# Entry
Amino acid sequence: MPVVEKRYLFTPGPTPVPPPVLAAMAEPVVHHRTPEFRPVYERCLARLRQVCRTESDVLLFGSSGTGAFESAVVNLVSPGERHLVVSAGSFGERWVSMITKYGADVDNLRYAWGQTPEADDVRSRLAQHEAKAVWIVQSETSTGVVADVQAIAAAAREHGALVVVDAVSSLGAVPCETDAWGLDVVVSASQKALMTPPGLGLAAVSEAAFAARGALPAFYFDWEKTRAAQRKLDAPFTPAVSLVAGLDVALGLLLERGLDRAFERHVRLGRAARAGVKAMGLELFSPDEDRSAVVTAVRPPEGIEASVVISGVREHFGMTLAGGQGELKDRIFRIGHIGWFDIFDITTALAAIELVLAEHGADIERGVAATAAIEAYEHTSVA
Ligand code: PLP
# Structure
């Protein structure tokens, strides 16, 4: 195997972390109940509210995204209660299992992996069976589909249901208007578009969600404990101080340039990735639409397995791409483009994929992908 020194992370999480964020995390560890930490904590929590576009508290946990999601389940669900869970891929199905495991009566509006959930389906499902909450994944990272959460939330609210959104891979990449769209809970994590290493989970929780808490016991993930402590700039358990310091800097970078700029950049990166993939003659698995701005899922050419592409770019060029999950294992590979990503990350990934495919006999004209990607990126502006 060739000696590889430079590594590239092209997965939809974890994502590359900008140097100022790494530098903040390398500072000496401080105690969380001190004047050194409190201003950082306060600023980070305020920035989280800005990024989530909410006036409500954003609760921060030492956990991955799944932990923050579990906090929503243990705080909202009561055994036997009906909940509508929309699934169209691996993460939606994870939430079906989790909510079922906690004893809810789960109504699963299930789509095939790769399909896009529709607000009208949610509306008619709720007309048949009421539900306390609708649980929806905004960006189904396993397929590349980004759902229209605004429309789905409107349908849920017509039926008086709470709305819980998994925005783990979408927060900071595509619009997620917590208050304006009436989202009761928005869950995310540090390691995707928030440009911070894994380890922090977060949940923006509305007053309505607080008022609707269920009967399950909770301890570490008890929302009330965390909210009461955070309001005093304290934490019920030792917070991950270094990660909070990093997240604070990352959110500052995001907000300094503006969320709208970030959303526009993600749309253009998505366009570039899709243009490059199509120029190579490959078929997209994720939708060819602007909303699909988080991850591009690609079917390998006939006769070449996705795992060959993934191991090829890793071994030859030190690049990490993502494979398919569950039923899509070996049927697709995925190029992430969230967070600290630019057009040359896309062209680099595409050029490497092109070389590996050519090595395995695919008939691809060299350089077409990068050229098409740059053109799509350069010559488009987002309205
Ligand atoms: N939901 C989505 C849409 C994700 O992409 C992921 C992680 O990839 C998760 C949930 C789970 O998050 P974590 O791995 O941080 O627990």
Observations:
- The pocket of pyridoxal-5'-phosphate is lined by residues 13, 64-66, 91, 137, 139, 141, 166, 168-169, 189 (CB under 6 Å).
- The longest strand covers residues 57-62.
- The chain has a mean pLDDT of 96.
